[in-house]
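User: Predict the structure for this protein chain, please.
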Amino acid sequence: MATAEPARYWRHPSVPGLDLLAARYRRHAFTRHSHDTYAIGVVQRGAEVLHAGSGALLIGAGGSVCVHPGEVHSGQAADEQGWAYRVLYPSVELVSAVVRELGGPTGTPAFHRDPSYDRDLAGALLAAHRAAEHEVHLSSETLLYQAIQLFWQRRGTQARERSPVRADVRGLERARQLLLARMARPPSLDELAAEVGLGRFALLRGFRERFGLPPHAYLNQERVRRSRTLLEAGRRPAETAAEVGFVDQAHLSRHFRRIVGVAPGGYLRGRAQ
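Assistant: Here is the predicted structure, written as structure tokens:
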């Protein structure tokens, strides 16, 4: 029996560091998370509500949008009909290289936040995405670079500026590193605050301002990120769950799907192709 929410996540056949997602969701809701890469998506049917920054964007059929690397966001269906979409996840290096070749600014390229309903742009992105389903390297690569080029030309702004550095940035970074180092057995909030020399409320407030998520949510995101590496290396899901600090395999699967959009098994099948 076909699933009511089919989703496929896979690696581009010839472009390193580029993942893709094609999915149809009705009840599925992404938890707040971020990516190391850009997430450039086109809604094909239905409508999605994308929560990014301090607001919500409604993206209907034909709409394309970009979420920047490190930008915390979540998404869900706008109504009971759900939405179908395709997403490209190009690395910062890939997008930056294309922008530099076009004479764009140095730094991390930035794009307009509001959805675009440019038919040519949506068509180029969808063509590049569909081509990545086949082992035709020259055409799939060409369509991909053309799509990124058009996206920059029509939606690009300036290179993103760094946020002002706060006085307690070292303590917050130390807290982040402690969570990563002790992922399987993380410290309590009181222990974490004491180790980095911050009050618990200062830590909570500063951590969310700097990294976009409170410590516990950030930790779960990083657990999923590390689990992807372990699963690709051949580790079994139950072993992976224990190593990154999830209670069991079901706990891993639940958080994995909330962030990646597919379950670990589906993710591995796509990466193996």
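The first strand starts at residue 7 and ends at 11.
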